[in-house]
Amino acid sequence: MKGLVCNNGKIEVVERPKPTIQEPTDAVVRMLHTSICGTDLHIIKGDIQTAESGVVLGHEGVGVVEALGSTVQGLQVGDRVVISCMTSCGSCRYCQRGIPAHCESGGWILGNHLDGTQAEYVRVPHATRSLHRLDSSIDARDAVCLSDALPTGYECGVLSSDVHSAGSVVIVGAGPVGIAALLTARLKNPEMIVMVDLDDTRLEKARELGAHYTINSGSPDAKKQLLDLTKNEGFDSVIEAVGISATFQLCQELVAVGGRIANMGVHGKKVDLHLEKLWDRNISIHMSLVNAISIPSLLQQVKEGKLDVNSLVTHHYSFDEATTAYATFGAASTHQALKVGLDFGVQE
To answer: I need a surface site. Which of 11, 107, 196, 292 has the fewest CB within 10 A?
Structure first.
């Protein structure tokens, strides 16, 4: 089979053996659609030291169950499934605490320690909890964002920042996970959602998808514009969706008394935490990997028409065009791209 790997900072499509069942808890999935995550770019840049050289990239995707181990429950060969970005055994101390991102025999292993989803086939360990049947009413190409982006926006952004119906929300960063936070924040019906970014095209997209206000952070008075929206009180829920020092600094300056900052960005460099300004403001700061335990509920929201999954994947390429797809995603603002999908051109 064909798989996309990273060697010495370069990606290439290589031939790999088709995966087989190795444990009774495994499934083998024939891939229909996958997508590129910002984390994949971090691997290529060498920012993530855990990623093993030569591993097939990717932890997002939709496919069809090709084979099942003897103990897998709730699935059948031929089922269309969403692949969770986090593999969960369900029984270790971390899974029992509801944080399968740190599963002792799983977590983020696909595209990190184990060959991932950017291949024609993928072996998924602990398939009972790591695969989710996809309703026939949901388009498979759009459903790839349910593997990671939407659960991340919801769990690490919306829930961690305590978005609620009477509150105000600011999301700093209008990339894929920032937009995912916007889409899932709307499920909570907050009084105000504000999106912040340097890219006017992305801000326009955010307005189309339900942001009440958008502010270009490159404006000299951007912080004043933002605080003016709250009568200088700050925001109840502040979501950082970039992963650089400047945006985390801005989030600290925007949080209201009693508010919460939720960090979603992947930080590769040191940031400053201004406790001298924050210690008496009764705020919380939360950061985490996505656990992806919200996938079933998000699937239900999509099925009921309450959550839009048609907006995040803006560019589609065939798997043979993978290098072009990565180039597009790597220069997302130039190409006006959010998520970039890869299609395998096979029948469902």
So the answer is: 11
Alpha-carbon separation of residue 251 from 168, 217, 257, 325 (angstroms): 13, 12, 13, 32
CB 100 within 8 A of CB 94: yes
| Measured distance CA(245)–CA(108) in Å, rounded | 25
Q: Which residue has the tokens 């994947």?
A: 313
> How do residues 279-316 score in pLDDT, each as one tens digit?
999 999 999 999 999 999 999 999 999 998 888 999 99
Nearest in space to 330 (alpha carbons), one of 205, 217, 175: 175
Tell me phi and psi for residue 231, to 5 degrees: 55, 35
* CA-atom Rg of the chain in angstroms: 20
Q: Which domains does the chain have, with CATH numbers?
A: 2-148+291-343 (3.90.180.10), 153-287 (3.40.50.720)
The rounded distance, in Å, linking the Cα atoms of 85 and 297 is 16
For residue 3, the Cα-to-chain-centroid distance in whole angstroms is 22
